[in-house]
Amino acid sequence: MTLNDTPRDIPIVRTIAELRQIVADWRREGLKIGFVPTMGALHQGHLSLVQTAAKHADKVVVSIFVNPTQFAPHEDFDAYPRTEASDAKALTGTPASLIYAPKPREMYADNHSTQITVEGISEGLCATTRPHFFGGVALVVAKLLLQCLPDVAVFGEKDYQQLLVIKRMVRDLNIPVDILSGPTQRDADGLATSSRNAYLTSDERKVAPLLHATLQDTAARLRAGEPVEGVLVSAIQKLKDAGFDPVDYLELRSAEDLTRLHSFQAPARLLVAARLGKTRLIDNIEV
Ligand code: PAF
After folding, report:
1. What's the rounded Cα separation, in Å, for the pair 74 and 60?
2. Per-residue pLDDT for 25 more than 60?
């Protein structure tokens, strides 16, 4: 290990004022700023987004904030893993320069009253069972981008609908940032890495890779020209038979604007969300 490889503690700031000061200093030095927003519980998927950001920027800010406005009251906001110490440790092995971990009060005033709705693209798919979700994501991402004012921000393709919602919002609101995406990271058996995988029991963990395998099998059948409707119905049944209950959706959509496709035409994306026990898993692949 050379001196440059020595893991170093990454500074953590908790206020907008501190974040802005540091970013403004970097800007004065002519440096380019990258940003990776997260809710913590960092895994390989997040760390790869930090690497992507570092390819496009001199300094990378990683935010850690479990955002209350994207959880419905019955969802796992309280149970969501909060692992700041180990997250900070994991980031020491990456090019991250700064952690921004605001408290909820720093992010949301008691009487905060602004909402952001990104119509069309944030309807259907995940919004069907989580109607509050994309409004909460759009709001917090807009706030984070305006707090940090990065040149580029990186989001994972695993949350594909979220990625397109954010791209649309940034375009519509003229937020001066380039939105980049990083490919889904997977365990060796194909399961997409996710903070929520920690909720799976060991039996469920054995079944979970079937989600990705089913997407791959479905994509192959679509490419071979089988009719969309029949292929999707049989794939959903296969997931149900394996214990996924409910299967919220398995759909073929346009990769550009998520329009539903009734016949296969590229660029297309297959997207799935299904519950395994208490854990809701999502995944998607390009077809
Ligand atoms: O994808 C996530 O982890 C979150 O939805 C995000 C983008 C950090 C907003 O809270």
Report:
1. 34
2. yes
CB 33 within 8 A of CB 151: yes
First-to-last CA distance in the chain? 42
Above 80 in pLDDT, residue 259? yes
Ligand 1 centroid from CA 38, angstroms: 5
Alpha-carbon span 285 to 156, nearest angstrom: 12
- The atom number, within ligand 1, closest to the CA of 156 reads 1
CA–CA dist 221, 238 (Å, integer): 14
| Catalytic residue chosen out of the listed positions 43, 46, 74, 112 | 46
212 catalytic? Reply is no
Whole-angstrom distance, CA of residue 38 vs CA of residue 154: 10
User: What is the three-class DSSP state of 95?
Assistant: coil
Q: Is 159 in the pocket of ligand 1 (CB under 6 A)?
A: yes
Measured from the CB, is residue 125 less than 6 Å from ligand 1? no
Mean pLDDT for all residues in the chain: 96
- What are the domain boundaries of the chain? 12-182, 195-286
pLDDT at 7: 61
Q: What is the CATH number of domain 195-286?
A: 3.30.1300.10
Mutational pocket test of ligand 1: of 35, 36, 38, the residue with most ligand atoms within 8 Å of the beta carbon: 38
Ordered DSSP codes for 166-190: HHHHHHHTT-S-EEEEEPPPB-TTS
Residues 12-182, CATH architecture: 3-Layer(aba) Sandwich (3.40)
Q: Residue 273: is it exposed, middle or buried by C-beta count within 10 angstroms (0-12/13-18/19+)? A: buried
Ordered alpha helix ranges (H), the chain: 16-28, 44-56, 84-92, 104-107, 126-129, 133-148, 160-172, 202-207, 210-223, 228-242
Q: Which is the closest atom of ligand 1 to the Cα of 66?
A: 10
- What pLDDT digit, counting tens, does each position of 234-245 carry? 999 999 999 999
